[in-house]
Design brief:
alpha/beta, FAD/NAD(P)-binding domain, seven-stranded mixed β-sheet, five-stranded parallel β-sheet, 14 helices, globular
C-alpha cells in the first residue's frame, strides 16, 4: 500500500482529517482538485464572506453609527476594489497556511480530481494510489433551481456574490437561510436595496422560531424586505439586470421583482459526481448523501465519509470534528461526537447562534421544558456598546434542569454560544451555568441571567 489513508477533499473536514491522521502516525495523502487547499469554506464560502461582512460593517459604522459615539466623520467613500482585494488576501494567506501545515505534518498533497477504482485504490491525474483506508470528504455544491441559469454575473450563486464588480442598486436573494442573509447583509450595508424571497413561512426555517421572528424584525429595520411563503416561478435576464416572478406558495396572483443582481441561495447538495461511488458499491441515501454507520464507515468496509457529503448539518466545524474523529478511529482510538452540542451561527449584525434543541423540537418529542430568557437591553456591556438588540434563551429539562438547547441573538452571539455548547457537552444544568462567576461588565452576563431565569429568577430583569 502507498498510504495508510487517502482523504478525498481538502476542505475543513478533509484537511483536518489529514493533519490529525499524520499526527497520529498514519502515512497520509489528501487529494484536492482545486488549485488551492481549504475547500469551499476557505476559498468561496465561510472565510471570504466573513471578510466582506467585517469590511461592510466597518463601512456602515463609519457612515451611520460613529456619530452616536461623538466621532465625526466626513467624506467617507467606498472603495469596493480594495475591499474585495482584502478579502482575496485573507483567503490567500489562509490557503497557504494549510499548505504549510501539510508540509509540517508530512501530509502528501495529491493535486487533481479523485476517482475510486476499488475499495483501496484512488486514481488522481491518471495515476493510481493505494491505501488501507479511504476517507471521502468531497463537500457540497450550491443547489440549483429548475429553469434558472446561473451566469455568475447577474444571476449569481454565493460564489459570484462574493465578487460583484459594483454594488447592485436592487438585490433579490432567493432563500432566507444562513448564506442568503449573510451575503444580503454585506450588500445591504454597502447600499443595495435587498429583497429576500423564502418559500417557507419564515426565514431561517431550521432555527428556533423566536430567533427567526426577532431577526426578521431587526433586518427589516435595517432596510431588508421579505417575501416569505413565496414561490419563485421564473428568473430571467432582462437587459443589464433580471426579473424574478414570484407568487404565494399556496397559490395566488404572481408579481415581478426587478433586480440588478439575483442571488440564488436555496441550500447546498452533497458533491459526489465523478467519484465512481456506485462502481465500488458505496450507497447513497434518498437525499444523495453517502450512507454511513455510527463510525462514519460507508457500505464498503474501509471507505469512510465525513462532512457535507453525509447526513447532518452542512457546517465546517461539524466536518472538522468528524475529520478528527475518523482519524482517531483509523489510528485505533474510540472517538465520539455529541451531535446535539454542535453550534450553528449566522453572521449577520447582530449575529444569531444556536446549539441543541429548539422549542418546536422539544414539543414534538413531548419533552417538558423550561425557558430562561434575558434581553441584551438589560445587559450593562451591551448598553454601553450600543448593541442592545436581541436576547439569550436557554431551554432546560423541566425535571432535571439539564440544558437541552440555547439560542442567542446579539452582536457577540457566535462567540458566546461556545460557553453553552461546552455546558451541554458536559451535561451541565442551568444552575451550573448560573452559579459560575461571569466577569462584569460583559455580554456573557446575559447567559448567566438567562440561566438564572431558567431555574429561578433573573437578577436584572
Amino acid at each position: 500500500m502507498d498510504f495508510d489513508v487517502i482523504i478525498i477533499g481538502a476542505g475543513p473536514g478533509g484537511y483536518v482529517a489529514a493533519i490529525k491522521a499524520a499526527q497520529l502516525g498514519l502515512k497520509t495523502a489528501c487529494v484536492e482538485k482545486r488549485a488551492t487547499l481549504g475547500g469551499t469554506c476557505l476559498n468561496v464560502g465561510c472565510i471570504p464572506s466573513k471578510a466582506l461582512l467585517q469590511s461592510s460593517e466597518k463601512y456602515h459604522e463609519a457612515t451611520h453609527d460613529l456619530a452616536k459615539h461623538g466621532v465625526g466623520v466626513s467624506g467617507v467613500k467606498l472603495d469596493l476594489g480594495a475591499m474585495l482585494a482584502r478579502k482575496d488576501k485573507v483567503v490567500d494567506d489562509l490557503t497557504k497556511g494549510i499548505a504549510f501545515l501539510f508540509k509540517k505534518n508530512g501530509v502528501t498533497h495529491l493535486s487533481g480530481a479523485a476517482t475510486l477504482k476499488d475499495k483501496n485504490t484512488v486514481e488522481v491525474a491518471g495515476k493510481s494510489y493505494t491505501a488501507k483506508n479511504i476517507v471521502i470528504a468531497s463537500g457540497s455544491d450550491s443547489t440549483g433551481l429548475p429553469g434558472v441559469t446561473v451566469d455568475e454575473q447577474v444571476i449569481v450563486s454565493s460564489t459570484g456574490a462574493l465578487s460583484l464588480p459594483k454594488v447592485p442598486a436592487k438585490l433579490v436573494v432567493i432563500g432566507g437561510g444562513y448564506i442568503g442573509l449573510e451575503l444580503g447583509a454585506v450588500w445591504a450595508r454597502l447600499g443595495s436595496a435587498v429583497t429576500v424571497v423564502e418559500y417557507a413561512p419564515r426565514i431561517l426555517p431550521a432555527m428556533d422560531e423566536d430567533l427567526a421572528a426577532a431577526m426578521q424584525k431587526i433586518l427589516e429595520k435595517q432596510g431588508f424586505a421579505f417575501k416569505t411563503a413565496t414561490k419563485v416561478v421564473k428568473v430571467e435576464r432582462k437587459g443589464a439586470g433580471a426579473s424574478v416572478t414570484v407568487e404565494p406558495a399556496a397559490g395566488g396572483k404572481a408579481e415581478t421583482l426587478d433586480a440588478d443582481v439575483v442571488l440564488l441561495s436555496i441550500g447546498r447538495k452533497p458533491h459526489t459526481e465523478g467519484l465512481n461511488l456506485a462502481g465500488v458499491g458505496v450507497a447513497l441515501d434518498e437525499k444523495g448523501r453517502i450512507k454511513t454507520d455510527d463510525h462514519w464507515q460507508t457500505t464498503v468496509p474501509g471507505i469512510y465519509a465525513i462532512g457535507d457529503v453525509i447526513a447532518g448539518p452542512m457546517l465546517a466545524h461539524k466536518a472538522e470534528e468528524e475529520g478528527v474523529a475518523v482519524a482517531e478511529l483509523l489510528a485505533g482510538q474510540k472517538p465520539h461526537i455529541n451531535y446535539d452540542a454542535i453550534p450553528g451561527v449566522v453572521y449577520t449584525q447582530p449575529e444569531i447562534a444556536t446549539v441543541g434543541k429548539s422549542e418546536a423540537e422539544l414539543k414534538a418529542a413531548g419533552v417538558a421544558y423550561k425557558i430562561g430568557k434575558f434581553p441584551f437591553l438589560a445587559n450593562s456591556r451591551a448598553k454601553a456598546a450600543g448593541d442592545t438588540d436581541g436576547f439569550v434563551k436557554i431551554l432546560t429539562d423541566a425535571k432535571t434542569d439539564r440544558i437541552l438547547g440555547a439560542h442567542i441573538i446579539g452582536s457577540m452571539a457566535g462567540t458566546m454560544i461556545a460557553e453553552l455548547a461546552l455546558a451541554m457537552e458536559f451535561k451541565a444544568s442551568a444552575e451550573d451555568v448560573a452559579r459560575t462567576c461571569h466577569a462584569h461588565p460583559t455580554h456573557n452576563e446575559a447567559v448567566k441571567e438567562a440561566a438564572l431565569a431558567a431555574f429561578g429568577k433573573a437578577i436584572h430583569a
